[in-house]
Amino acid sequence: MTDTGLHRRLRQFAKNSGAMAGLLIVLVLVIIAVFAPQVSPYQPNAIAIHLRFQPPSPEHLFGTDNLGRDVLSRVIFATRISLLVGVVSVAISGVVGGLLGLLAGFAGGALDNLIMRLTDIQLSFPPLLVAVAVAAVLGPGLINVIIVLTITQWAQYARLGRGSALRIRHLEYVQAAQALGSSRARILLRHVLPNALSPLIIMATLQLALVILTEASLSFLGLGVPPEVVTFGSMISASRDYLGIAWWFGVFPGIALMFLVLGFNFLGDGLNDLLDPKR
User: Domain total for the chain?
Assistant: First the structure.
């Protein structure tokens, strides 16, 4: 892409109100997550029974929960956990699935057939059902949640990577590299991979929202991270019995989770407009 074309697309991205709103939301939440210990007014697990069910006030902007813990502080640290789990699992599944798909589409033959049949098996099951089943076997834990989410997501990147490789391998510059005697590995890494990155990046951005929701669902069911680790799902689950007397207990974590998901969805749509040459 020429500098002029890039600048034109960046200007179009800047004019996209949804994309800019998503970028702003994501940047703010990332900064809050990175500097959570400095931003948080209280320790997220500090119990103060005498302060339980305090409504929102200047001392506790989001109120307190059933154990007197500051809800705002817990929301801040829950944002950090959601972003950590989402980014790491999407990065691993994107790299593994994307490379497998590119290899399958570029190599073809028996290897393509094997990888695609494994992909078909994976995609034949609902992702949340697979996540619940694997999480029940592995048990709660931060690393286990990342493993579960990686297992449920890699096949989609493999399918997309294969489609991109099938399209790119027939282009003139790839055939020219083959005619000049370049190795298959060099062609895959130097020519096919860079031109297949755009759709993979767009999918990764959009999948971040789904992965964050899946992690919240697992934590809501008690299959996510350990109880001492603050997550949106565990907070919302704990608030179910108290919504009548402490609405803020579950409402504010739900709103924060909603903004986190919307931010990545808006940003993904904006990146789709920016990176997709057909647009």
Answer: 1
Sign of the C-alpha dihedral computed for residues 263, 265, 269 and 274 taken in this order? positive
User: How many contiguous H segments (helices) and E segments (strands) does the chain have?
Assistant: 12, 0
| DSSP state, residue 183 | -
Q: Which residues span the domain enclosing 137?
A: 26-275
| pLDDT score of 188 | 75
The whole-model pTM stands at: 0.85
C-alpha–C-alpha distance, residues 4 and 36, integer Å: 39
**Which two structure tokens, joined as six digits, stand for 202?**
């767009």
> Using CB atoms within 10 A of its CB, is residue 26 exposed (0-12), middle (13-18) or buried (19+)?
buried
24 strand-pairing partners:
none
Give the tens place of pLDDT for each residue, 2-45.
556 667 777 777 778 888 898 999 999 999 999 999 999 999 88
Is residue 169, in this structure, part of any structural domain at all?
Answer: yes
With respect to residue 87, please indicate whether it lies within any of the assigned structural domains: yes
CATH (domain of 52): 1.10.3720.10
Q: What is the per-residue DSSP string for 90-132? A: HHHHHHHHHHHHHHHHHH-HHHHHHHHHHHHHHHTS-HHHHHH
pLDDT in tens, 36-84: 999 999 998 888 888 888 999 999 999 998 888 999 999 999 999 999 9
Q: Establish if 18 belongs to a structural domain.
A: no
